[in-house]
Amino acid sequence: MGYEYDKVEVPSDGTPIEVVDEDADELDIPDDPIIPIIHGDGIGQDVGPAAQQVLDAAAAATGREINWMRVFAGESGREQYDENLPEDTVNAIDEFRVAIKGPLTTPVGAGFRSLNVALRQTLDFYSNVRPTYHLDGVPSPVSNPGQMDMVTFRENTEDVYAGIEWEEGTEEVEQVREFVEDEMGFDQTIHDGPVGIGVKPISEFGSKRLIRKAIDYALENDRDSVTLVHKGNIMKFTEGQFADWGYEVAEEEYGDEVITEDTLWEERDGEPPEDAVVVNDRIADNMLQQVLTRTDQYDVLATMNLNGDYISDACGAQIGGLGIAPGANFGDARCLAEPVHGSAPKYAGQDKVNPTAMILSGRLMLEYMGWDDAGQLVRDAVEETISAGKVTYDLERQIEGGEKLATSEFAEAVVDNVHDLA
Ligand code: NAP
């Protein structure tokens, strides 16, 4: 404790969350925690307050209180501090341990690097968790959306997302080209003329800690399998190695609790021991098909940064799309919840978009704090609202006879249901 904040106020009411044991991911959560929130860019101004309202209602209905500490990044960071990612914001999320954020805009090509990636790297939020499950009443492009119940664990700090890349035309990119061609012997590989080059680091440390989180989750939540998703047939020393390290973790660290798919067939004729989690692997392009064609056979997915982004969006499409899909970033004894969607600038400030993804990201945050009753209430209240046909524009256009609500009206309808269901 003890950061000094330049331009934000620490709420005078409320108790900070304290770390009990960082390595054991153990926090002491009071009933009145201080929780930093970034509303975010674009539609963040719509979905941020809507989510706060619902989370407040669920906390109050279960005898607790959230003391919000509004912090700034992106556009609001530039307005308040003339900086994209002010130190106050990073320090608040670091100090108070559990936080939630809306989307932040990242310019394509030129401009600043992703603030999301910077936040995840700076505070070592190494696992991005994206559960995809179907809520009653949500329209879907597939005939059996109820079969979708997967949780993607996406490595969050490395891969081609690490930001090690050089722009075409710079001295640096020519140095890298020279090194690759002359010193490493890849002299026919890079085309002549302008080129941009990126590096894809996949480490044993980064891979194993992510895969452990996925296996631990599967064991704690009675899941049947963890699938390592990779493109190791082509990228052998990065993605292939990720899968090898995954099997090492499974075989060396969990005893009888975890069994690999090969062992399952070699020794048990495909019959898993009771309560054991099966670890298998699939090639990423095949996996994008499997999530559609064999949806109910998969459970928990563990994968690298880029694959995880693609696969979780593909899963999300089956359960209502980006307006619904929640997510959260976890490190050791820290959580930063955030929806999967971006800032959708064309809808910014219109009180139009669906706040469900941000609300259900808040549910992940509540569950991380051990407030499972409040989390369940949030889920049930959202489901009740949608199944009554009260929806925002994105779902209304797919539902016959649905009632189209504004973002704020939808949040109010969910709050009413929180009260009714409590
Ligand atoms: P996006 O903001 O997610 O929006 C893409 C489309 O998804 C929207 O046009 C809309 O589709 C639908 N959508 C997204 N959020 C919705 C919501 N809450 N309710 C209903 N529909 C929703 O993706 P983008 O346009 O590719 O990215 C915009 C910016 O966001 C970029 O700067 C990107 O870098 C950033 N981004 C940030 C994060 C983050 O902060 N974690 C994540 C992803 C992207 P329809 O128009 O078809 O209805």
Précis, in short:
This protein has 422 residues and is an alpha/beta fold. It contains 14 helices and 17 strands. Helix 1 crosses helix 11 and helix 1 runs parallel beside helix 14.
List keywords for this structure.
422 residues, alpha/beta, two-stranded antiparallel ribbon, 14 helices, 41% helix, globular, binds NADP nicotinamide-adenine-dinucleotide phosphate
- Alpha-beta classification: alpha/beta
Number of strands: 17
Unreliable parts: none
Distance separating the two termini: 35 Å
Share of helix, binned:
40-55%
Descriptive account of the structure:
With 422 residues, the protein is α/β, with parallel strands linked by helices. Helix content is 41%, strand content 17%. The chain contains 14 helices and 17 strands. The chain has an eleven-stranded mixed sheet with strand order 4-3-5-15-14-6-7-13-10-12-11, sandwiched between helices. Strands 1-2 form a two-stranded antiparallel ribbon. Strand 14 (328-331) and strand 15 (334-337) form a beta hairpin. Helix 6 (204-220) crosses helix 7 and helix 12 crosses helix 14. The two termini are 35 Å apart. The mean pLDDT is 94. Residues 43, 47, 103-106, 116, 322-323, 338, 341-344, 353-354, 357, 394 line the site of NADP nicotinamide-adenine-dinucleotide phosphate.
